[in-house]
């Protein structure tokens, strides 16, 4: 086999390896869709369960980087506290040590047979067994990629160019560590970096002392996945990413003398260099965990402190995590949270628009951000996998969320595209101050109805809904009287036409807000049979999104 063909095999093996690392998390997340929301919300309550969860999850997805990104997502959506998540990431690091050990064994060469058996029997599996075979299929792809890496590395030893390059890199501890760090940061997997290192070391391209800087560089480089996963997310998620980075940086410091001691002793041991790499990785993650586990709270606070330097959070989606869009119950719950959050921003925008006690920069930020935030919700909702009508509770929540999102979209358009120009833009109402001085009652009723409607949805409380509908009856009578008076005399009142438009817009916004109240009343005032009929009827309807 020529070095060129070996290099092609090596590249193919790395590609297959990375593909397997991508498939494993996707299959696991689909499996977690069955009651996973409850499990994930409870797993981070204790250090022991968090540690075991991180370890087991990283082994199943074959990557601590993928596990770390997933855990950052759990913190982002509020399903795991920062300290519990950091402990889970420690467990994921230990899981990486086990993965590397499996990769060092000669049984990897039998992975094509295992892949064939898993795929063949997986075609006939049904129900839960089909999900189990899908998970096993992803793991077998990782092992198959490792087998190709080992096979492709062997011919490279005959390439003078490769030998010269490896001689240059291995001549410096720092250069080797930096190379491993950069490679891991690029491919987002320390496991893949170590897999390549094992393949090259097994073929004689890497001398034994050079494996230590590779392991240390790859270990710190794997934390870059957490930093990337936290970009643009909440402060807690960013804090967790920085805590993970600090945890691994501090962890390699005691490992430098320990690793050097192991390298001196290990050369005389009758084991392969692949197993040496696995043992060094396990020694690193265990030392890191044992020394820093008591300082989880300190690391978490340091991470949050570093995250605070990133500046004020922008108005962007916080709960719409695409890692969970295939887990329908969790995705619907996250969308509901984002709708409530966007509604609160809309309330802040309207209050500032009417009362003026808001920073102008903040007001314009809300105006420009709200439409994009709602569009993100709509896009996320369209990606959620539709659920069976047999789960009536989930269908109820899904339908209610869709109706409320449609109403929110209409309210945001009315508020930002029509109400804002009327009060602050080119069509500014000339008689607005006169209107407010005469109609404090309308202002008060408007915000009472609006907040009651949003409260009915956010708290699922029919009492708020009843209050909103009752007050709207009073509001509609008052608004009709004022509009009639203005229509009869608008030609004599400066800005009379704009005042009529203003009242019409207020009424339109409130009618849309009542969709929020209607959701709570619909499912609490009616019988279960009425609810089922409503779900069946609305489930077939196309939502105006």
Automatic annotation (TrEMBL):
Transmembrane segments annotated in the record for this chain: 6-24, 51-75, 87-120, 132-153, 165-184, 214-233, 245-265, 277-299
One GO CC term on file: plasma membrane
InterPro entries: Na/Pi_transpt (IPR003841)
Residues annotated as signal peptide: none
UniProtKB keywords: Cell membrane, Membrane, Transmembrane, Transmembrane helix
A Pfam family the protein falls into: Na_Pi_cotrans
MF-aspect GO terms: sodium:phosphate symporter activity
Protein origin, superkingdom: Bacteria
Coiled-coil features, chain-numbered ranges: none
Major location (coarse): membrane
Subcellular location: Cell membrane
Mode of membrane association: Multi-pass membrane protein
Any one GO BP annotation for this protein: sodium-dependent phosphate transport
Database matches in PANTHER family: SODIUM-DEPENDENT PHOSPHATE TRANSPORT PROTEIN 2B (PTHR10010:SF46), SOLUTE CARRIER FAMILY 34 SODIUM PHOSPHATE , MEMBER 2-RELATED (PTHR10010)
Record NCBIfam families: Na_Pi_symport
Name of the featured protein: Phosphate:Na+ symporter
Organism this protein belongs to: Acetomicrobium thermoterrenum DSM 13490
Upper taxonomic lineage: Bacteria, Thermotogati, Synergistota, Synergistia, Synergistales
């Amino acid at each position: 086999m020529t070095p060129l063909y070996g290099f092609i095999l090596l590249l193919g093996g790395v590609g297959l390896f990375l593909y397997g690392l991508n498939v494993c998390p996707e299959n696991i997340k689909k499996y977690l869709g069955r009651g996973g929301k409850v499990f994930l919300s409870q797993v981070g309550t204790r250090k022991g369960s968090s540690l075991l969860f991180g370890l087991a999850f990283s082994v199943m997805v074959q990557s601590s980087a993928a596990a770390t990104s997933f855990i950052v997502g759990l913190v982002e959506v509020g399903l795991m506290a920062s300290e519990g998540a950091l402990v889970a990431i420690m467990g994921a690091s230990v899981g990486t040590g086990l993965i590397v050990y499996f990769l060092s064994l000669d049984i990897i060469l039998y992975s094509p047979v295992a892949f064939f058996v898993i795929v063949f029997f997986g075609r006939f599996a049904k129900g839960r067994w089909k999900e189990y075979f899908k998970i096993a299929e992803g793991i077998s792809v990782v092992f198959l990629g490792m087998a190709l890496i080992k096979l492709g590395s062997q011919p490279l030893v005959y390439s003078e160019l490769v030998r010269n390059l490896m001689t240059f890199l291995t001549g410096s501890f720092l250069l080797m560590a930096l190379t491993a760090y950069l490679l891991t940061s690029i491919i987002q997997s320390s496991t893949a970096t170590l897999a390549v290192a094992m393949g090259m070391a097994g073929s004689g391209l890497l001398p034994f002392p050079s494996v230590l800087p590779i392991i240390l560089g790859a270990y710190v480089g794997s934390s870059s996945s957490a930093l990337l996963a936290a970009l643009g997310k909440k402060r807690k998620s960013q804090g967790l990413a920085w805590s993970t980075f600090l945890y691994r940086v501090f962890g390699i410091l005691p490992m430098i003398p320990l690793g050097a001691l192991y390298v001196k002793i290990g050369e005389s041991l009758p084991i392969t260099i692949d197993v040496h790499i696995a043992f060094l990785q396990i020694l690193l993650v265990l030392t890191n965990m044992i020394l820093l586990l008591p300082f989880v709270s300190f690391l978490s606070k340091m991470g949050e402190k570093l995250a605070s330097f990133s500046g004020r959070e922008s108005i962007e989606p916080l709960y719409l995590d695409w890692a969970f869009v295939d887990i329908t119950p969790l995705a619907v719950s996250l969308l509901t949270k984002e709708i409530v959050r966007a509604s609160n921003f809309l309330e802040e925008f309207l209050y500032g628009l009417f009362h003026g006690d808001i920073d102008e920069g903040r007001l314009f930020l809300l105006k420009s951000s709200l439409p994009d935030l709602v569009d993100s919700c709509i896009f996320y909702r369209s990606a959620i996998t539709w659920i069976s009508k047999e789960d009536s509770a989930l269908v109820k929540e899904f339908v209610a969320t869709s109706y409320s999102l449609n109403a929110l979209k209409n309210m945001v358009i009315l508020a930002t595209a029509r109400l804002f120009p009327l009060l602050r833009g080119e069509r500014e109402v000339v008689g607005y101050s006169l209107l407010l001085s005469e109609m404090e009652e309308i202002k008060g009723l408007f915000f009472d109805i609006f907040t009651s409607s949003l409260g009915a949805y956010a708290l699922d409380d029919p009492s708020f809904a009843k209050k909103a509908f009752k007050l709207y009856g009073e509001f509609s009578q008052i608004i009709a009287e004022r509009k009639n008076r203005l229509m009869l005399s608008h030609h004599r009142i400066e800005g009379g036409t704009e005042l009529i438009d203003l009242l019409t817009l207020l009424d339109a916004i409130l009618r849309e807000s009542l969709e929020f109240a209607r959701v709570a009343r619909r499912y609490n005032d009616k019988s279960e049979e009425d609810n089922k009929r409503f779900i069946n009827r609305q489930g077939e309807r196309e939502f105006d999104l």
